[in-house]
Amino acid sequence: MQIYLDYSATTPPRPEVTAAMQAAMTQQWGNPSSIHEWGQRSAMVVEMARSQVASLLNAATPESIIFTSGGTEADNLAVWGVTRAYREPQHIIISSVEHSAVSQPAAFLEQCGWEVTRLPVDETGRVNPSDLKNALRPNTVLVSIIYGQSEVGTLQPISMLGDIARAHGVLFHTDAVQVAGRLPLNVQELPVDLLSISSHKIYGPQGAGALYVRPGVKLVPLLAGGGQEFKLRSGTQAVPVIVGFGVAAELAAQEMATETPRLIGLRDRLFELLGDVHGMSATGNRLHRLPHHVSFCLTDVACPETVTGRSLVRQMNLAGIAISSGSACSSGKISPSPVLLAMGYRPAAATAAVRLTLGRDTTEADIEWTAMVFKQVLGRLCPQVALSCC
To answer: Mean pLDDT, 10 residues at a time, over the chain (390 residues)?
Structure first.
């Protein structure tokens, strides 16, 4: 029996997606910038995909969607696109629990003389809106706060944070990679200027993402070239993956109303099944949380040398169950999770953290089996825990 519970890392492309990509590779293989028939066939399906992604976000115009190679490039385009417009270093604000696609560009800007404020979070990973208000300065040019934290599942009060930034005339960006397709996103109502999403988190292909750019917002492109994507992302568009992205976005929008409540039920059931493990602490905010996300760390482990997030992932994998130790981008590291450290966890606890994320193929039987196997694995790694969780 094999169970995949790492949907925050990536999702399997849906059959409808792969069929559309196959059709694009055989029928729409032309360069979308070419004005002949072959090129225009490709251009047509790219624009159809742009409309599908725009509909997922309820964007007023498809032209506000800029296709990228993924969420990382979309985040980078948002941060660099704003800051490169300034000759002299200014001030930006991020949270202390950002994805590295935002935190690393911010760190580089800091090395170049920019001032970077990293807002603290509470023990559940939430930013206090008053902290943002107090951090704003006359030379603040960008606020970037992640919407749904991939490692601990916490949702930020994006509307409140965006309202504060907008009231002070500061551009606001959010990384919504984990939120898209799981919770409604309406950029006509959300006070965001820039918003990043990724195809492979919503059952589309890897290698495609998008940055929503509110009409009127000016960005400096990262790439110099042919001026594709409204002169913001040069390079011949990857037609098949963009087509797959569009189909995935359309299906996600259609099914969200039924799929999201189902995932919430499975999520809460898994939390319940694992609630009797001694020393286990749920991480993140249980109320303001991604619907598919379960995460915890062991705060009172009697066997810290043997029970780590990495050891649990390996042992669960041997049992045919895929989980993650924190975010996939850092799961190969043994060092404590910076996100959990920012939330106030001790290094030992921040090393013994795991994440289980659910998806379309997850069933209640999968949840029941996973909980049983996890307890058995934990008991083998640390018998003291097994004796105390019954």
So the answer is: 96 98 96 95 97 98 98 98 97 97 97 98 98 98 98 98 98 98 98 98 98 98 95 96 98 98 98 88 95 90 73 95 74 75 90 94 98 92 60
Q: Which of 112, 297, 329, 389 is catalytic?
A: 329
Is residue 112 annotated as part of the catalytic site, yes or no? no
d(Cα 122, Cα 168) in Å, to the nearest integer?
24
Which residue, 203, 191, 181, is CA-closest to 291?
181
**Residues spanned by the domain of 60:** 15-252
Strand 293-298 relative to strand 115-119: parallel, antiparallel, unpaired?
A: unpaired
Same domain, 304 and 185: no
DSSP for 189-216? TS--SEEEEEGGGTTS-TT-EEEEE-TT
DSSP secondary-structure letter at 321? E
Residues 248 and 230 in one domain: yes
pTM (whole model) above 0.85: yes
Read off the CATH number of the domain in which 155 is found.
3.40.640.10
Which two tokens mark 369? 């089996």
Cα separation, 140 vs 117, in Å, equals 10
Phi-psi region of 70 (alpha: psi -120 to 50; beta: other; left: phi over 0): left
The gap between the terminal CA atoms of the chain, to the nearest Å, is 25
